[in-house]
Design brief:
The complex is a heterodimer of chains A (180) and B (81). Chain A is mainly β. Chain A has two helices and eleven strands. Chain A starts with 14 loop residues before the first strand and ends with a strand. With 81 residues, chain B is an alpha+beta fold. In chain B, a hairpin with a 2-residue loop joins β1 and β2. The chains are: A mainly beta (180), B alpha+beta (81). The interface between A and B is medium-sized, with 22 and 24 residues.
């Protein structure tokens, strides 16, 4: 009898990205379920992927006299800036609060926001619940670069912006959201 | 170009974009979003005091008791030859 395969999670459209402009009340910077649900559902504005992926240096460590092998050591960890490309409505910018410009208005250059990423939850879920697992980052927005998603007939106007991880590391990874 | 303003929400002050503040009818303060050295001003409590973790009286007493327990205030016994 063959062994059963382990369960997996589909990735397509299965990521929820929430951006909080109001800093979480807790000094730890970790938001509650209520605070996350009050945030902007950024996943429905962002094109493509949103991944905050660290890199780590590796290098050759010191070799002992008796050894003919050079050990590899782990080095410094860097969280590179995450590039986000999102939609906006240029002719509605004169009216603050217009539908479609929520993320544009939240990501003013130099603004510091809390980004909550929930992998494995349908991106169009309206509300998170206590017990959901999230990665939490404090990120600072760079300048806006206006452009478009491409040159073709199906493309849309978009803004691209770099988001850097404040403090150089996440506030929390795999954090179980609490109700309060 | 950056257009940050300082706002006050629920007794805390922080920076948001001017358009965001207008869209959400936030209380905009007549203060710069930047410090004198050009850095963005961090989140603060009302009046500009820094945000500190809340410590209850019970927690503070517990911490003090733990510290005093590890620091003996009696002299070590004299060594007799």
């Amino acid at each position: 009898m063959p062994i059963s395969m382990p369960p997996t999670t589909h990735s397509l459209g299965n990521k929820m990205i929430v951006i909080l402009t109001t800093p979480p009340a807790a000094a730890s910077g970790i938001p509650t379920v209520t605070e996350v649900n009050a945030g902007i559902k950024a996943g429905c504005h962002i094109y493509g992927q949103f991944n905050v992926t660290p890199t780590q240096n590796t290098g050759e460590g010191p070799r002992k006299a008796c050894s003919r092998n050079v050990p590899t050591q782990l080095g410094l960890v860097t969280y590179p800036a995450a590039e986000v490309q999102y939609s906006y409505m240029p002719q509605e910018l004169g009216t603050p609060g217009s539908a479609g410009n929520e993320l544009y208005e939240a990501l003013d250059p130099d603004a510091v926001v809390t980004v909550v990423v929930l992998d494995g939850i349908d991106g169009q879920t309206s509300a998170v619940v206590a017990g959901d697992v999230a990665d939490i980052y404090e990120m600072k927005a760079g300048v806006r670069r206006k452009g478009q998603t491409g040159e073709g007939e199906f493309d849309e106007l978009s803004v691209t912006q770099a988001l850097i991880v404040v403090g150089g590391e996440p506030i929390a990874e795999d954090h179980v959201l609490a109700a309060a | 170009m950056s257009d940050l303003v300082r706002v006050r929400v629920d007794g805390r002050e922080f920076n948001v974009g001017r358009a965001y503040a207008a869209a959400h009818q936030l209380t905009v303060l007549d203060e710069s979003a930047y410090t004198r050295d050009g850095q963005t001003r961090p989140v603060s409590r009302e009046g500009g005091r820094p945000v500190k973790p809340k410590v209850s009286v019970a927690e503070a007493a517990e911490r003090k008791a733990a510290k005093s327990a590890e620091q003996s205030d009696t002299n070590p016994p004299s060594e007799e030859n």
